[in-house]
Amino acid sequence: MYNEALRLEDLHLSYRGLVGTSISKPRPLGFFESGIQPGEQELISGANLVVQKGETICIGGGSGQGKSALLRVISGLARPNAGKMYIFGEYIPPERLTALNIAKRQVGLVFQNGALISNLRVRDNIALPLRYHKVGTATEIEDKVRMAMDLMRVRDYADFFPHMLSVGMQKRVAIARSWAMGPQLLLMDEPTAGLDNYNRRNLLPLIDNMRTLFKTTIIIVTHNLMVAKELNCKITFLTHKQLTEPRYFDEWLHSDTAISKELFRDLRTSG
After folding, report:
1. Domain end marker among 161, 182, 203
2. If 0-12 CB within 10 Å is exposed, 13-18 middle and 19+ buried, where does residue 262 land?
3. Alpha helices (H) along 18-94
4. How confident is the prediction along the chain (271 residues), in pLDDT tens digits per residue?
5. Cβ contacts of residue 231 below 8 Å, gap of 6+?
6. I need a surface site. Which of 17, 67, 83, 150 has the fewest CB within 10 A?
7. Residue 83, by phi and psi: left (phi above 0), alpha (psi -120 to 50) or beta?
8. In Å, how far from its chain's centre is CA 212?
């Protein structure tokens, strides 16, 4: 597991696990032993996944399959009913599965809606978690903010408020804010949602720079299969409550699996 950023083993999640999630309160020691209760509906049932350090991987699948919920589990914002999770080779026991404990292990999360603070300028939105967690001196924080703005090419908008930005720029700022904290594993929920092809193609190389320049491991939930193609990364599908074996875009496109025939049908026709 030395080279692994993330390992999920036989992960189970019910809808109950998404309700009343605690940010910092430790889970009850017997929580995992409770498992799935009789009659309880599972959203994820026995998912397995291994992501190597420095790898980018996409998670695809239909709406309502549990893709975003899976990111919440990995980030400590949702409670799995059973299974094991390892982050950078370290097993995270049930009582330590909280958002704060996961964040301390250099895991960041970019929400689909960006979650920017409306009355803070771009530079202050990016600096907010750094200041809250006291990550360095004021000068060091300013340097981190500038580096994050440069990475996502938003420095020209440093004094703008979120409502003054396009959707694409808001997404860049949200990514910059998460990256400024120095995560080794960055989770992104639909970073290209709402973007046209032009803006998607402008955003993805900036995301890929995190991997190529800083060896950041990236997991992206997306409904757009072209994200995996343009990032040249593997994609796994959450279907029938489980994750498929990750494959590259072209491997899925030319395979004869039922998933490929269903999800890649339009791409095959257009090609």
Report:
1. 182
2. exposed
3. 67-74
4. 679 999 999 999 987 666 544 444 444 444 444 555 555 688 899 999 999 999 999 999 888 888 999 999 999 988 888 999 999 999 998 778 888 889 889 999 998 888 899 999 999 999 999 998 888 899 999 999 999 999 999 999 999 999 999 999 999 999 999 999 999 999 999 999 999 999 999 999 999 999 999 999 999 999 999 999 999 999 999 999 999 999 999 999 888 888 888 888 777 665 5
5. 56, 58, 204, 207, 208, 220
6. 150
7. left
8. 18
Which two structure tokens, joined as six digits, stand for 215?
A: 């060896």
Same domain, residue pair 192 and 175: no
Residue 67 lies in a domain: yes
Cβ atoms of residues 58 and 234 within 8 Å: yes
pTM assigned to the model: 0.89
DSSP state of 204: H
Tokens 């200041």 found at: 131
Beta strand 242-243 with 217-221 is: unpaired
In 3D space, the residue among 221, 252, 261, 201 whose CA is nearest the CA of residue 110 turns out to be 221
Residue 186: strand pairing partners: 108, 218
- Residue 62: HSE in the Cβ half-sphere, 13 Å Cα cutoff: 11
**Of the residues 182, 204, 219, the one at which a domain ends:** 182
